[in-house]
Design brief:
- The chain is an alpha/beta fold and 431 residues long.
- It has two domains: 276 residues, Alpha-Beta Complex (Spore Coat Polysaccharide Biosynthesis Protein SpsA, Chain A); 119 residues, Hexapeptide repeat proteins (UDP N-Acetylglucosamine Acyltransferase, domain 1, 3 Solenoid), CATH 2.160.10.10.
- Helices cover 20% and strands 28% of the residues.
- The strands form six sheets. Strands 1, 4, 5, 6, 8, 9, 10, 11 and 12 form a nine-stranded mixed beta sheet that branches.
- Strand 4, helix 2 and strand 5 form a beta-alpha-beta unit.
- The radius of gyration is 23 Å and the shape is globular.
Length: 431
Amino acid sequence: MKVGLNLLPTHKTLAIVMGGGAGTRLFPLTEERAKPAVPLGGKYRLVDIPISNCLNSSIRSIYVLTQFNSTSLHRHINTSYKFDSFTPSFVEILAAQQTPKNSKWYQGTADAVRQNLRYFLEQPYEYFLILSGDQLYRMDYRTILRQHVETDAEITIATTPVNRASASGFGIMQTDEQCHIAHFVEKPKDPAILDTLKIPPDLLRTIGHSENTELYQASMGIYVFNRSILSKCLDNDLEDFGRNVIPSAIQNHVVNAYIFQGYWEDIGTIHTFFKANLHLAEEFPSYSFYEAGAQIYTHPQFLPSSIIRTTSIDQAIISDGCVIEHSIIEHCVIGVRSIVKPGTRIQNSILMGADYYETDFPPSTTGLPAIGIGSDCSIEGAIIDKNARIGNRVLISPHGKSRNLDGEGFYIRDGIVVVPKNSVIPAGTLI
């Protein structure tokens, strides 16, 4: 039976955003913050993506599970998502905690949900939507919920088509033409196994691809569970959904795949973070924050418009509250309150900006460069984290260096120079 989007029981759906991972592959951006709190697109945070997708899908009951370096994430959520007193809407944080029954931190995604299951079951939710806090995509979750209801599935897993070269980096689903999942393999490497996991020809035609195309269904880490099934699947000590719970559930429950064909990027490494951000500044990005009726929400900062003086700008996002003078900006994302002094050239780089203007909180120690980018600097292939102080005549470039290197006041990861939050790079430094 077909179900209209507006008739779906979104009021009986609880969204659970996983925000507790250590994010080691995103170090040093995660040195002082949780991965979902990492700035994105100049003015947003990664966690804004799944929360905004929920709100735009009329799902307004949202928990965010947190654990590592969670202070800035808590602050962001508490200041960004406030609802009036006359609706049942909420975005609430469930931090890892010790209880009489459990004194351990979250051991994985499934364990995190298990430890908080008693809170999720307090209200009569029929469906549980489990989401990752570190992905970039736009999805109307009502579409996956509609398929879940119409097919009488007990679990539905969102998948995205990937080619053979990429398949070994994901959990791959083997389905029939009706998208019923028969088998799951985590990061398959064996060519013979990969041959058995290809999307069948009839299903390829259904989703608009040639039947000769070699594609695989990769798990997006997005799950819909029926209420009773989630309780059954967690009545054990399995730690992770992708590695443990889902392969076990396929043997005993009706588990279907929902094939999502829009843009999706797992922001798991410095390389993917860098690529996804700079892609936002291109002429025709695969993902855009400019989507009528499906805006991305974040903390309103009430900053003044940016001031730009005699500056050449090409393919760049310039956020609010910036002051850029007599410089060249090419293919960059410039975050809020960024200060760029005259004579500087910035190419293929991300400036995350600052949490405050230095005039509001003057530094107690004299002799430090001002927050922002000094004059006559050259910056290429870099991520400059928040509140960094880059002195005059500084050269930053990854060319001619190791792809992974720890330096004084900087790191190189995946061939990208990363200057951590609050770092100081003295005048005249060559990186």
